[in-house]
Specification:
By secondary structure, this protein is mainly alpha-helical. Helices cover 57% and strands 5% of the residues. The protein has a 4-stranded mixed sheet with strand order 1-2-3-4, with helices on both faces.
Length: 360
């Protein structure tokens, strides 16, 4: 019994030291000028503090056995989460340096890219919009931070995407020197998801459900794709997923993109949207792990005490392999390979696996 009490005392000492290390990380990250550069050393500092109290791996395992819930939370939030995000950024840097993929991973930081990046000057945050990856909620977070509305729940839905009324300026609206200053000093992030699942989401939203306030997708863009890419011109059905894939995988798709204008943002690559090899982002969240990534992003941006990410319904962010395979089952292997060839940069940069149906 005496040994058990000593073990519990040691466990709570571990908890205390983890809290001290975590506080140090949080306070340091809130300095807007050291977001990217200090990330690696900060995690190492936290580990050093743990080492100073000489906790062995065996005692850590005993600690987790005694206090599973607390131990799991500490392990994931204070160790695993920072390491996961560091690994994502390291993967990004390595792939960006791969010259064989340069055409698929690099782009110019053009006005098109700067138009995708929203600015919250009050808290020194830049958010790059990647449509069909939960961007509406992140816009609400930034709008709430600007203080126009007292809470996220009170932001009218029609205001969120009205860029003249939502109070979120685009980075393109600033001078060159102001742009460079913000890119250098601000906390920068964006969210990704499996590239093929994102395309399915874009197709369903814009061409199947098609909101009434966006009629051009069904009445202008869909007919344009059908005229160019449908093999059987006699068919009178609306745009089918195989038509959509054929258009996206066409190496000469750009002539249609120019006609469609900015509406293509819902299905172009993350590379084209956010220039991840040209802009040094602080964090890259994944839609599939958004339940953990959202709180982490808020904390690293230094705003977790001001706002919370809206509640995520259970299972909504999980990758749906069955759905993806069902949609692509009616698409020819040739068209799938051409589609993958275009989005290969996205798959590699963000660690997404090649779909199994493409390998078979």
């Amino acid at each position: 019994m005496h040994q058990r009490w000593l073990l519990l005392a040691a466990c709570f000492w571990v908890i205390f030291m983890f809290m001290v290390a975590s506080k140090f990380i949080t306070l340091t990250f809130k300095d807007s000028e050291v977001y990217g550069a200090k990330q690696g050393p900060l995690v190492l500092t936290a580990i050093t503090e743990v080492e100073k109290i000489q906790v062995t791996k065996e005692k850590k395992r005993e600690f987790l056995g005694e206090l599973q819930t607390i131990g799991r939370s500490l392990s994931e939030d204070l160790v695993h989460q920072p390491l996961i995000h560091m690994e994502r950024l390291e993967l990004l840097r390595n792939v960006c340096q791969d010259t064989s993929l340069k055409n698929l991973t690099h782009t110019t930081v053009s006005k098109f890219v700067l138009d995708r990046i929203f600015v919250c000057d009050k808290h020194k945050i830049l958010f790059c919009q990647t449509p069909k990856v939960g961007n509406t909620q992140w816009k609400k977070v930034l709008i709430a931070l600007n203080g126009v509305y007292p809470s996220i729940d009170e932001i009218p839905q029609n205001i969120v995407h009205d860029h003249e009324k939502n109070g979120l300026p685009r980075l393109s609206s600033f001078s060159d020197s102001e742009i460079q200053n913000r890119l250098k000093l601000y906390f920068k992030f964006f969210i990704v998801r499996d590239p093929f699942e994102r395309l399915i989401s874009a197709f369903k939203d814009k061409f199947v459900h098609n909101p009434r306030f966006e009629p051009w997708y069904r009445h202008e863009i869909a007919p344009g794709i059908i005229r160019k890419y449908r093999k059987n011109r006699i068919e009178t059905r609306g745009l089918q997923f195989e038509d959509f894939v054929r258009y996206l995988g066409d190496p000469n798709h750009r002539w249609l993109d120019l006609q469609f204008g900015d509406h293509i943002i819902h299905w172009v690559t993350y590379v084209e949207l956010c220039a991840p090899c040209e802009i040094t982002y602080s964090v890259i969240g994944h839609h599939e792990t958004l339940e953990k990534d959202a709180p982490y992003i808020l904390k690293e941006a230094g705003i977790d005490h001001l706002v919370s990410y809206p509640t995520i319904p259970p299972g909504i962010t999980a990758y749906n392999k069955t759905k993806v395979e069902r949609y692509f089952s009616g698409v020819s292997k040739r068209d799938i390979r051409r589609l993958y060839a275009r989005f290969e940069g996205d798959f590699n940069l963000f660690g997404y696996q090649v779909p199994t149906f493409l390998l078979n």
